[in-house]
Amino acid sequence: MLRVDVRREFPGGSVEATFDAEGGVTALFGPSGAGKSTVVNMLAGLERPQAGRIELEGDVLFDAARRIDIAPERRRVGVVFQEDRLFPHMNVRGNLRYGLRRLPAVRRRIEFDPLVALLGLGGLLDRRPATLSGGEKQRVAIGRALLASPRLLLMDEPLANLDAGRRAEILPFLDRLREELALPIVYVSHNVDEILRLADTLVVMGDGRSRAAGPVEEVLSRKDLRQWTGVQDAGSVFAATVRETGADGLAVLAFGGGELRIAGGPPPGTRVRLRGHARDVSLALDRPTNISVLNVFDGKIVALEEDGAQVDVRLDIGVPLWARITRHSANELRLAPGVRVFAMVKAVAVDRESHGPSAGVG
Amino acid sequence: MALTPLEIEALGLSLRVAFWAVLVSLPPGIAVAWLLARREFPGKALVDGIVHLPLVVPPVVIGYLLLVSLGRRGAIGGWLYDSFGITLIFTWKGAAVASAVMAFPLLVRAIRLSLEAVDRRLETAARTLGATPAQVLFGITLPLTAPGILAGVVLAFARSLGEFGATITFVSNIPGETRTLPIALYSVLQTPDGEQAATRLAVISIVLALAALFASEWVARRLAARLRGRP
Q1: SS3 string of chain B?
Q2: What pTM, to 2 d.p., does this model score?
Q3: What is the pLDDT of residues A63-93, one digit of tens each?
Q4: Which residues of B touch A128 (CB under 8 A)?
Q5: What is the CATH number of the domain that holds B67?
Q6: Do A87 and B122 make contact, defined as CB atoms within 8 angstroms?
Q7: Which domain does B20 fall in, by range?
Q8: Taking CB atoms and an 8 Å cutoff, what residues of chain A touch B134?
Q9: Chain B residues whose beta carbon lies within 8 Å of the beta carbon of residue A133
Q10: In this predicted structure, what is the pLDDT of residue B73?
């Protein structure tokens, strides 16, 4: 359990963050300049807050009132920076062992060989950082941080300096870390796809403040945060579990709004995160019959928000669901808060799959 | 051409003086370079100025200051003699001190530049991996500064080999004790028909300096290759 409540002021601004993170991946999300990296540095002990408190697993890492400020080397908080920051005068093995070799054996939680295998670093151990590709370097940096057996891993936009190809090379490793290591991770990003794939908890940062914190599904479905998330059409995000795969190739998924069927889903038991665009949801006042859309849910209108010729309709179908329709249709159907409607969901995307026991919240 | 006993004596003495001058000034050189590169403190400009003084003041002035302070009756020299029985004046040790003082600014400058070029972000990364500030200094910072330290050492060594003014003022011109190559060259020029001997000493000096330069180039290239990852 990580509890953060810190404030740091500097000439021309300040950064404030308040959030709790349990296990799993907590994403710090927001536009550039929102203060995300400052929060990471404060957690690692590299920047000192003027006020507040940081607590990890019941240990106080920082407390302004009690004048506690544990040195970075004693916090056991690992950091993967945006740049790889590998030591150029050591080979990959030397880099990987840098934190490991100063760690007392009793504190070792992660062993060398399995982690090297997990990150696919076996063939690189005798190479120098200068001879590695960007993706390989970042994998070594992740391995180096993990082998110091931290109690918390901070990742400050670890994929931001990589092109799409290298990013796609690393993401599966991050999936495996999330699945296989019971290690809380704070992951900084301004890329919504990375967050939907990796994060359990979402902290939205904007203008130097943490604006909201909670399960990814809940926070990303809130429209009032869009000025900070920059996500214009996030639509709706749900957590779901694959119940069965039918003979017709359709997977049946259980989620807060009932059952949802998609073509060619993952195997039963898989927990998935689904995202549906608001524009892929149509509304009807009567239960539609004889239609090709597989997924129809009934629910109530919670709110309508006009946006030019369009209207964003917020529904409650057991979970929040957004529909984007024309203002013309909204007037025609006399839609208003409280009206019962049927929502036809034409498409959803599977953003992540988890197989192990749940490591986090949400 | 075989070297004469006098030439061998001067050459050996020069090497010994330069070797000890660099060896003794290296640890304080690194410390001062680190202070100037990494720390802000009151009087920093003054320290910087004092370190660079030998570069801008006539060597004979430095020699005179050494004579006054490190002579038998000088404040430091008297204490050294009374407490440890160490005499610097008119000895090769004194020549090493004079060379060290004259070469110190070159040593500090090279190391300081190299320290300032080290990526501080590597040091913070090392801290998050559990390294104390001292472990970061010896495991990350100094190894990455090695090319600059080497450059400083070579510069200081070459400067020590050529040191003349401060040395002759402080420890005089004593054959076998303080008569290094430059002083020997100066001496033979004072004698009639000394031109040939002077030429030979000049050639020895040039060969020595070039050898030091080539050796350092070779080591520097190997160091750089190690940092870049080619064995």
Answers
A1: CCCCHHHHHHHHHHHHHHHHHHHHHHHHHHHHHHHHHHCCCCCHHHHHHHHHHHHHCCHHHHHHHHHHHHCCCCHHHHHHHHHHCCCCCCCHHHHHHHHHHHHHHHHHHHHHHHHHCCCHHHHHHHHHCCCCHHHHHHHHHHHHHHHHHHHHHHHHHHHHHHCCHHHHHHHCCCCCCCCCHHHHHHHHHHCCCCHHHHHHHHHHHHHHHHHHHHHHHHHHHHHHHHHHCCC
A2: 0.81
A3: 999 999 999 999 999 999 999 999 999 999 9
A4: 228-230
A5: 1.10.3720.10
A6: yes
A7: 5-227
A8: none
A9: none
A10: 85
